[in-house]
Amino acid sequence: METNRKVTLTHNEGKETIDLPVLEGTLGPDVVDIRSFSKTGMFTFDPGFLATASCESKITFIDGDLGQLYYRGYPIEQLAEDSDYLETCYLLIYGELPSAEEKKNFQHTIMHHTMVHEQLTSFFKGFRRDSHPMAMMVGVVGALSAFYQDSLDIANPEHRKVAIFRLISKIPTIAAMCFRYSIGAPFMYPRNDLSYSANFLHMMFATPCEKYEPNPVLVQALDRILILHADHEQNASTSTVRLAGSSGANPFACIAAGIACLWGPAHGGANEAVLKMLDEIGSEDNIEEFIQGVKDKRYRLMGFGHRVYKNMDPRASIMRRTCYDVLTELGLENDPKFKLAMKLEKIALEDPYFVERKLYPNVDFYSGIVLSALNIPVSMFTVIFALARTVGWISHWNEMISDPQQKIGRPRQLYTGAPRRDYVPVDKR
Ligand code: CMC
Tens digit of pLDDT per residue, the chain (429 long)? Predict the structure, then answer.
């Protein structure tokens, strides 16, 4: 929203000025609207978007200094405690909590579109058996545009609605198929009588030979992981989805782009990296040496630090409690990896190196431990993050497409390469 405040910039050695309007949101710091800045003949330079808001959005708000996260205004703690994943999806997509009737209809729609096109099973067979599940996710989700051609017209609201439903319904099925394929197990058809999270555990762990009843404590823990990872405003993968979508690419292709970005260890790969790090540290006796290596910048303490949170990540506090619940339910309170993580957490929270840099544990420090306790292999951690984040990505994509002021994303650059020079034939070089 525009205010009557302005920031005045002086340039051209003090001979010219330009007034830049100040905009204010409902929450968070004001932003300077620099769209008219290019009239000066210059651009602004901000690699990594450290000081740049890339868009206007009504979906999620993070206060990094206070350690707060809201989806559509609702604190994450309340949603994690009292809501469920599908209700949170509804909230993220439509902006309001559903009525009882709307909730029932939404759940019914999502849970009755969980099967994938049967020919997609043949598509899987093209992958090497030892493919990483994320490699398959990127490919298969992108390929949905080849299977569901009747929901690709992004200018048609009905097509967009169907594509959104299809993505949320089918992502767990595809994620479980990636896992089953990688271990040579048969694909399990979804069970629409189960909840979203219980059905995912069923597709992951059931076999056609015997009955499988998901443990309700573990189902709730998974549901909570999905809620906590459902959205996180303009992070790298969401910005990737927006940028891909800004060219008019179809939603399945855009979500595949988001999955590719999420794969990196500084983003969605962090919980996988936390478990690898705990394995490498091995025992409590090696923590001191490891921490010294972090301070010498030989490696990073994975699961610590965040671009926006300079206080405790609120998702981490919830995940820490969930971690205790799950390990207690499974009788794993004395699990050596968990004990090692707790010791590492204590040392890091007290060490001035981490305190001065405001490096607190983030959600991924604990989510990997919970996922391992759920028997989910490390290679599937980022896949589950992608599953959870699909609703956030698609809500941002939909918000962007519905915005009449939307333009193709096209950053500029500061060129520091060679100046103009003439081509030299190969025999003269
Ligand atoms: N371990 C050790 N030192 C760190 C860490 C860390 N995990 N994170 C930042 N630092 C140090 C960094 O070396 C730098 O120190 P100095 O000022 O002496 O040069 C200072 O803290 C600032 O670091 P930065 O790289 O400028 O911070 P950033 O905002 O660019 O990085 C981050 C954010 C998440 C990429 C980074 O903290 C990191 O690599 N963390 C580990 C990976 C991780 O856990 N990622 C999951 C993020 S939460 C999931 C999500 O939302 O995607």
Answer: 889 999 999 999 999 999 999 999 999 999 999 999 988 999 999 999 999 999 999 999 999 899 999 999 999 999 999 999 999 999 999 999 999 999 999 999 999 999 999 999 999 999 999 999 999 999 999 999 999 988 899 989 999 999 999 999 999 999 999 999 999 999 999 999 999 999 999 999 999 998 899 999 999 999 999 999 999 999 999 999 999 999 999 999 999 999 999 998 888 888 888 989 999 999 999 999 999 999 999 999 999 998 888 888 899 999 999 988 899 999 988 888 888 988 998 988 899 999 999 999 988 898 888 998 999 999 999 999 999 999 999 999 999 999 988 899 999 999 999 999 999 999 999
Cα(79)–Cα(86) distance, rounded to whole angstroms? Answer: 11
Q: Report the distance separating Cα 362 and Cα 175, nearest Å.
A: 24
Only one residue has tokens 């994943």, namely: 85
- Ligand 1 centroid from CA 229, angstroms: 19
Q: Is 306 in the pocket of ligand 1 (CB under 6 A)?
A: yes
Dist. CA 266 → ligand 1 center (Å): 8
Atom of ligand 1 nearest to the CA of 268: 52
Q: Give the separation between CA 306 and CA 266, rounded to whole angstroms.
A: 10
Which sequence positions are flagged as catalytic?
A: 306, 364
Q: Is 386 in the pocket of ligand 1 (CB under 6 A)?
A: no
Question: Counting atoms of ligand 1 from 1, which one is nearest the CA of 48?
Answer: 30
Ligand 1 centre to CA of 303 (Å) is 9
Phi-psi region of 375 (alpha: psi -120 to 50; beta: other; left: phi over 0): left
